TrEMBL record:
SUPFAM superfamilies: Aminoacid dehydrogenase-like, N-terminal domain (SSF53223), NAD(P)-binding Rossmann-fold domains (SSF51735). InterPro entries: Aminoacid_DH-like_N_sf, Glu/Leu/Phe/Val/Trp_DH, Glu/Leu/Phe/Val/Trp_DH_C, Glu/Leu/Phe/Val/Trp_DH_dimer, Glu/Leu/Phe/Val_DH_AS, Glu_DH, NAD(P)-bd_dom_sf, NAD_bind_Glu_DH. Pfam families: ELFV_dehydrog (PF00208), ELFV_dehydrog_N (PF02812). This is Glutamate dehydrogenase. PANTHER family: GLUTAMATE DEHYDROGENASE, GLUTAMATE DEHYDROGENASE 1, MITOCHONDRIAL. The gene is gdhA.
Amino acid sequence: MTKSNDKTNTKRTDVPSYLPADNLGPWQIYLEQIDRVTPYMGELAFWIEALKRPKRALIVDVPIELDNGTIAHFEGYRVQHNTSRGPGKGGVRFHQDVTLSEVMALAAWMTIKNAAVNVPFGGAKGGVRIDPKKLSAGELQRLTRRYTSEIGILIGPNKDIPAPDVNTDARIMAWMMDTYSVNTGSTTTGVVTGKPIVLGGSLGRVEATGRGVFVVAVEAIRRLGMSLENSRIAVQGFGNVGSVAAQLFSKAGARIVAVQDATGTIYNASGLDVEKLRLHVEKTGGVGGFKNAETMKPEEFWQADMDILVPAALENQITSANAAKIRAKLIVEGANGPTNPAADDILRDKGVTVVPDVVANAGGVTVSYFEWVQDFSSFFWTEDEINERLSRIMRDAFAAVWQMSVDRHVSLRTAAYIVACNRILEARSMRGLYP
Ligand SMILES: NC(=O)c1ccc[n+]([C@@H]2O[C@H](COP(=O)([O-])OP(=O)(O)OC[C@H]3O[C@@H](n4cnc5c(N)ncnc54)[C@H](O)[C@@H]3O)[C@@H](O)[C@H]2O)c1
């Protein structure tokens, strides 16, 4: 569930007492990223310590009555990492392995992502240590409602706006919105995003992340002097993000030559029929067994002949074990944290361009921002308007990061962190320190 690093847990002095100093987990990786960007911050480095601790971290007990009449207690969290640029924004994850360190790091990465694409939010994240597959629908609803009540002192449409993440969906967002509304005595659709359309959800939200991946890929292709037409693309993950991106690439004339998901790895040098593949996945649950394609061993996926690689499945997939074998000239990170830092260095030395997750997969949070704006004004936009505005924000974000990378001679990932941290710390310095 976490980003990982080949280098783990060297001792640091700037760590909070509430994490074990010898096992900082994902928070350690985040701190190292901030260390790496600090030399580029100029005078704003004066404020850098603000990014090294979360503004607020709430740990809650979530007791629920199980269907068998007994009571079970679960640990829940809501962390607001930074609110200098606006209210906290970030998903809620239900997973048995969620930890405070992970939620802190995910909240911090939301701060960076929101600033990298310049949407007016800070960063937040939440989680409950529970395997939701073990709960009945009734238990899941009771868990969601009690968790929402417990974190009710932190969330609100002007304070902190949750959204779906791993194992949470539009139905859970509807329960969260209802619980918050009942507790506050007024229907408040803008307290969460990723809601069903009938409750103030936004058109285009489901496709937004994959669409954003496609938009920034087109921008990168153009700047690298590559051509989209007929370029060979490999996609890991054919879920929400991967399948939408693959469809858009295919419609634009590129060839999706390899796809890997949890059920198999398939290859077709002349390009897979993405629409047929989508129907096959809808019917069977995965790409495995798709006709008109060769089957590959999972590890062969990385060395397939390709121009562009889109990791859109899990974190920590591109590592020092496979980075050297990758033939793509361009990697566009649909997933969160698919490339670990050691692999990043190998790819940089090989001259591979990596469009980092904080920009490439920010389409989802961008349309969440649109949902929040539409909820406030109770006036809803057409899907065309949404897609047009999404494309503009993604293109502008990519252009700023690309320019920073050229100006400072750094990777796009470092450039994205420089752009984001500049925006956050500038806001911080303008606001000043209270009292
Ligand atoms: N959905 C969003 O809006 C959004 C936004 C930002 C980032 N992301 C990130 O994008 C990634 C994918 O999210 P999603 O919403 O498409 O999820 P999803 O659950 O819809 O799809 C996940 C895909 O990954 C595949 N997969 C799982 N284990 C695998 C393995 N071991 N090897 C290869 N493939 C495997 C699954 O088979 C599936 O095709 C995640 O990292 C997520 O955090 C998603």
